[in-house]
Specification:
This protein is α/β, with parallel strands linked by helices. The protein is about 45% helix and about 10% strand. The chain contains 18 helices and 10 strands. It has a 10-stranded mixed beta sheet. Strand 2, helix 6 and strand 3 form a beta-alpha-beta unit. Helix 1 runs antiparallel to helix 2, helix 3 packs parallel to helix 12 and helix 3 runs antiparallel to helix 17. The longest helix is centred in the first third of the chain and has 23 residues. The radius of gyration is 22 Å and the shape is globular. Bound molecules: S-adenosylmethionine (SAM) and iron/sulfur cluster. Iron/sulfur cluster (SF4) binds next to loops.
């Protein structure tokens, strides 16, 4: 349990780093302070949670968040931090064809997106999670495919949990062969189930090719497996996207969700997909409401504790010792600290998305035939790779600055072959509605370390 003394020590330690981050410390100077604090922070966390490797992982996540904040406010072209939110795709393919999605019939015929099917190879997933998992607070094992088409997805969730990150999957759950027990045992924290209707005829207007009966059977099977295995996770969230054609079924869906073992239901406004199918119109009920049937914070705590108890001590020790040991990164990040733009894209500093083939994107937008969102490629069996600082990533970060500065100063990065971030995207600039908000990361770390961070430190780390 954390003591008042522990809390005070963490405040002083992180307070000094925060002062250095906000002050004029150069990157190498700042990194020396971070390195010098690593062991002490892990030591205090250890005292608080009783596991040395878990404490080391959580110290890395905390310091990485601090570095990410500094990179962001310096508008660093080369990030020192690793992404704290990971999006990884177990399967690019999907069995459904919802309008607006990369799998929609119309989008495929018109060749709108640059997307191909395929399952991720195990060594690619392993290497990616090995390198980036220890810094991440949240790992989303889905993006534009159906994750539960891949029978190895529960195993991949387990690998993500080995780094003590929170894990989330969204699934259509219209899956013929589903291993409910494996999903429950995997350690998955959240399972979102996409069901936008309470009867087959209404449901299939959007979820084309989906079988509502099968979805409900699978949801109930997962809820049953939780009961049988005495687990309270994954938290099952029925997600109901509100369109004109299904608005009248919200109330029955709430009832059905409860009956089929969901912990909660989210009633949410979708993105407009009329560009793809004009007959599908967003509903008038503009909302983001969660109706909770059964949720306790302790459900997530119990799940975390299972993995705290089994962290691989030797792997984490090696990782912890190596982290940020290379001063060259800090020195090369100096090149871009001169000007500060008011406008930038938060995604470029917070998250990274990798599809099943290893293509790396800055956000959850899919690459298109006419626009380039692929900022790099992660390769299996190739050792440590800096996919967060590829030339295209750096150009994208720099370009946001240039846009704000009306074209002045290129700071040595070639701006040919601009990624979509610069060439046309208007979505992310100046907005912070990312899937991995830092405040959620701080909450995760605070809970995992037994509330050892004080409110001032939390708001500094989380509010940006
Ligand atoms: C592209 S899907 C991939 C995961 C999985 N196949 C599924 O549908 O749950 C990712 C998320 O986008 C959601 N989604 C689909 N259409 C949407 C829309 N028009 N607006 C907002 N979210 C949407 C899905 O429900 C899901 O939660
Ligand atoms: S189920 Fe998910 S991935 Fe599949 S088409 Fe629908 S939104 Fe896209």
């Amino acid at each position: 349990m954390p003591t008042a003394e522990n809390r005070k020590s963490v405040s002083e330690l992180l307070g000094a780093l925060i002062e250095a981050a906000d002050g004029g410390a150069s990157s190498p100077e700042f990194m020396r302070k971070v390195r010098a604090s690593k062991n002490e922070l892990a030591g205090i966390y250890w005292d608080s949670i009783g596991s040395e490797p878990a404490a080391q992982l959580l110290a890395l996540k905390t310091l990485n968040l601090l570095l990410a904040r500094r990179d962001f406010f310096h508008r660093a072209q080369r990030a020192i931090a690793s992404p704290f939110g990971l999006v990884v795709e177990p399967s690019n393919g999907c069995n459904l064809a919802c309008p607006g999605c990369v799998h929609s019939e119309n989008a495929r015929q018109r060749n709108v997106f640059d997307w191909s099917p395929g399952m991720v190879k195990a060594d690619l997933m392993r290497d990616f999670l090995d390198q980036y998992g220890p810094y991440a607070t949240h790992i989303f094992l889905y993006d534009y495919g159906e994750p539960l088409l891949n029978p190895r997805t529960p195993q991949y969730v387990g690998w993500a949990k080995d780094s003590l990150a929170l894990t989330t999957i969204s699934s259509n759950l219209s899956i013929k062969k589903l291993d409910a027990e494996a999903i429950v045992e995997s350690g998955l924290d959240y399972l979102t189930v996409s069901v936008d209707g309470a009867t087959q005829d209404v449901y299939q207007v959007y979820r084309r090719g989906g079988d509502l009966g099968l979805v409900l059977k699978n949801m109930a099977a997962i809820a049953d497996a939780k009961r049988r295995l005495h687990r309270n996770t994954p938290i099952i969230q029925w997600q109901f996207l509100v369109f004109e054609h299904n608005e009248h079924q919200i109330e029955p869906a709430i009832e059905m969700a409860k009956r089929h073992g969901a912990n909660q239901i989210l009633i949410a406004s979708p993105f407009d997909v009329a560009w793809d199918d004009p007959t599908i119109r967003v509903g008038t009920r503009n909302s983001h409401e969660v109706v909770v049937f059964d949720f306790k914070d302790s459900y997530l705590e119990e799940n975390r504790q299972r993995f705290v108890d089994s962290v691989d001590k030797e792997r984490v020790r090696r990782f912890f010792e190596d982290a940020w040991s290379n001063d060259a990164v800090a020195i090369s990040s100096e090149e871009s600290q001169s000007k500060r733009a008011d406008i930038t894209c938060h995604w470029l500093y917070k998250n990274v998305a990798m599809d099943a083939t290893g293509r790396v994107m800055p956000c959850c937008g899919p690459p298109g035939r006419d626009y380039d969102l692929v900022l790099g490629t992660f390769k299996a069996n190739s050792g440590s790779q800096d996919i967060f600082n590829t030339p295209k990533y750096r150009a994208a970060r720099l370009g946001c600055k240039i846009e704000d500065e009306h074209g002045s100063g290129t700071e040595g990065v070639a701006l040919e072959g601009l990624p979509h971030c610069l060439a046309g995207c208007t979505w992310g600039k100046g907005r912070d509605d990312v899937i991995s908000k830092p405040e959620h990361s701080v909450a995760m770390i605070t809970e995992a370390t037994g509330e050892v961070l004080d409110p001032d430190v939390c708001s500094w780390l989380g509010d940006w």
